[in-house]
Amino acid sequence: MSNISRAFHLIADKLHETPISKIPGTDAVYTTISDFFAPTTDEPMSIDYRGYDLQIQPGDFVSDQIYKQQYYEREVSEVIKEWVTEGSTAFDIGAHIGHHTLMMHDQVGKEGRVYAFEPNPEIADLLRQTVRMNSVTNVEVEQSVLSDEAGFVNLYVDPENSGSSSVKSSEEENEQIEVESIQLSEYIAENEINHIDFVKMDVQGAEINIIRDISQQLDWFETILLEVHTGTYLSDSEAEEIHMVLDKKGTLYTIPNMEECGIEDMKQKTDHHILWLSD
Fold first, then answer.
1. Label partner for 1 (CA 20 to 30 A): which of 69, 75, 230, 243?
2. C-alpha to C-alpha distance for 171 and 159, rounded to whole angstroms
């Protein structure tokens, strides 16, 4: 990333925190200008991301968004800033290239720990490179799917947006690869993790399998930020099941307005974020 490009993104990122960002058309102008700084290579590359070296894959949707805008899923970042505290144990499930992982690393500090799960081998390799390049010692990278059964499953990888890869998608144009599947409940027990302060879960439909797996261990968890994919990867009945399981042990809220989340909110036919806080 050139110095001019870096300066542009830093200024634009600051402007996003001011009333200027509310002016109609601001995002369109920003996107048009940022297109001039788009990578001209398809090879993985390192960019400056909030003071870190972040490995990205040009041409892939999430990487391109981060390169152009210096953020992706701003509302997720805001939740991490508010709910992940120093000394915490945090899980990034569906970590992708690690942009949220790095923020969790910042938040937990030297005494905390971050566990990042990414099943796609190529993307997990970029994540591992980022961790090594930044000499981050409190992040564990696990290349596996989390589910309610251990073994091996098919992962369907969108060639243009690896962030939407799923164990539940079977579009013909998607590449199919076999990846390891492990249970979060078993992983926690094997690694003697006594308490999980924060979980970010963005797994394109596999959230139902993970919630089923940990349904009897929810007392171990404090806060879960969950992206729900009703209508794309989840059925209405699966969304209801997630709500029922989590509602027994805590309270669910919609993001970003923090209003209590009911069953009908869970069944919205758009991808949306839900925050669960334990009782």
1. 75
2. 11
Is 231 buried (19+), middle (13-18) or exposed (0-12) by CB count in 10 A? Answer: middle
Q: Is 231 left (phi over 0), alpha (psi -120 to 50) or beta?
A: left
Task: State how far the Cα of 279 lies from the Cα of 262, in Å rounded to an integer.
Answer: 17
CB 275 within 8 A of CB 253: yes
> Over the chain, what is the mean pLDDT?
89
Which are the contacts of 269, defined by CB distance < 8 A and separation ≥ 6? Answer: 230, 231
Closest CA to 275 of 212, 222, 234: 222
Q: Are 181 and 152 in contact (CB under 8 A)?
A: yes
* Tens digit of each residue's pLDDT (9 = 90 or more) over 235-270: 999 999 999 999 999 999 999 999 999 999 999 888
